[in-house]
Design goal:
Keywords: Aminoacyl-tRNA synthetase, ATP-binding, Cytoplasm, Ligase, Nucleotide-binding, Protein biosynthesis, RNA-binding. It is an enzyme of class 6 (ligase). This protein has 406 residues and is α/β, with parallel strands linked by helices. It has three domains: 220 residues, HUPs (Rossmann fold); 76 residues, Tyrosyl-Transfer RNA Synthetase (Orthogonal Bundle); 69 residues, RNA-binding S4 domain (Structural Genomics Hypothetical 15.5 Kd Protein In mrcA-pckA Intergenic Region, Chain A, Roll), CATH 3.10.290. Helix content is 44%, strand content 14%. It has a six-stranded mixed β-sheet with strand order 1-6-5-2-3-4, with helices on both faces. Helix 10 crosses helix 11.
Length: 406
């Protein structure tokens, strides 16, 4: 479908659109006025991971197209837990833990969005401001009557859990009602007309649209993004080493750069569209590079994604470190390092740097011939590495490198 508004054209060209509730009406609205749209993020950890990045980027696109994004932090809904895509209930957090997580997560959004008081400036709200004040019986009477158990049982977030015979608490069952109420509140408080989210949020978004129509007669809209998987079919944001966190305290700029640099060849063009501001014409040029030229495209992807999150200087340092480590055969100073005190066992070095999850895995990697010290293969898993004034470079395969320091 072709769109007239710059907003939907931008989202379509960059690959963000999976479903829309009323494409023609939203397209017309986006031509006529500034559209306020939101996405909710629960604060279950001090950092979001890269699986949330497409949602952060779509808010950035909303602002780039001249509209106003709302970052809705789930200070209230985090106390309940979204069952969408989950096999089990979440561990409940205290209010203090949730507030600390929100403060930590906010710093990431400030990298991608311009906050302020202008008509298209982003704002950050917390649904605890209204959910914590709800009175249970009046809420059930005024809002709960618009939801039927019959329909709620058909939503994937509920149906799949029940089909697997996994517990779904009454607390979690209420989540979809609370999320729908969020949309109603944001419509009233901030003139919000649009909710965005992942494809697993479609049912929740539709609930909010219907609730706004039934109670206030509001015309609300929804857009979902496709599930982002890698070319291998793996879920975005998960690696063998664990989650790819967005906060620097959880994952360094170097490791973040490496994550993108090591993506599959088939993912480069799509990821450039979704996760960077590189112009579309340049992306098409990079996609068309023959043979090993795809590695240049991967470097652009890694550097541009890292620049958005960590800043241009950190991205340039990561790129320079990679050049020193891979192209020149050296050891860039920004590689992850481990202080040894002068000696360290090979297995402790591999686990201490996070290259292996256990001594058993480290032993297997040594046996496979995947471990090198200063670019020389190592075959003895019992080796004790002596570290002098100069750091020792340790490598696992072709992509994981670190420094052992005294």
């Amino acid at each position: 479908m072709s769109y007239a508004s710059s907003l939907l054209r931008l989202l379509d060209e960059r690959g963000y659109i999976h479903q829309l509730t009323d494409a023609a009406a939203l397209d017309t609205l986006a031509q006529r006025e500034v559209v306020t749209g939101y996405i909710g993020f629960d604060a279950t950890a001090p950092s979001l991971h890269v699986g949330s990045l497409v949602q952060i980027m779509i808010l950035r696109r909303l602002q780039q197209a001249g509209h106003r994004p709302i970052v809705l932090m789930g200070g209230g809904t985090t106390k309940v837990g979204d069952p969408s895509g989950k096999d089990e209930g979440r561990q409940l957090l205290t209010a203090e833990q949730i507030n600390a997580n929100i403060a930590s997560i906010r710093r990431v959004f400030e990298r991608f969005l311009t906050f302020g008081d202008g008509p298209t400036d982003a704002i950050l709200l917390d649904n605890a401001d209204w959910l914590d004040r709800l009175e249970y019986v009046p809420f059930l009477r005024d809002v709960g009557r618009h939801f039927t158990i019959n329909r709620m049982l058909t939503f994937d977030s509920v149906r799949l859990r029940l089909e697997r015979e996994q517990p779904l608490t009454f607390l979690e069952f209420n989540y979809m009602i609370l999320q729908a109420y969020d949309f109603l509140e944001l419509s009233r408080r901030a003139g919000c007309r649009l909710q965005l989210g992942g494809s697993d949020q479609w049912g929740n978004i539709v609930n909010g649209i219907e609730l706004g129509r039934r109670i206030d007669g509001a015309e609300l809209y929804g857009v979902t993004t496709p599930l982002i998987t890698t070319a291998t079919g793996a879920k975005m944001g998960k690696t063998a080493a664990g989650a790819v966190w967005l906060n620097a305290e959880q994952l360094s700029a170097w490791d973040y750069w490496q994550f993108w640099r090591n993506c599959d060849d088939a993912d480069v063009g799509r990821f450039l569209r979704l996760f960077t501001d590189v112009p579309l014409a340049e992306i098409e040029r990079l996609e068309a590079l023959p043979g090993a030229g795809i590695n240049q495209a991967k470097i652009v992807l890694a550097t541009e994604t890292t620049a958005l999150l960590h800043g241009r200087e950190e991205a340039a340092r990561a790129e320079a470190t990679a050049a020193a480590t891979f192209a020149d055969g050296g050891a860039g100073a920004d590689l992850p390092s481990l202080a040894t005190g002068g000696t360290v066992t090979l297995l402790a070095a591999l686990t201490g740097l996070g290259f292996c999850a256990s001594n058993g895995e480290a032993k297997r990697k040594v046996a496979e011939g995947a471990v090198r010290l200063n670019d020389s293969p190592v075959a003895d898993p019992a080796l004790v590495v002596e570290v002098g004034a100069e750091p020792v470079k340790i490598s696992l395969g072709k992509k994981r490198h670190g420094l052992l320091k005294r």
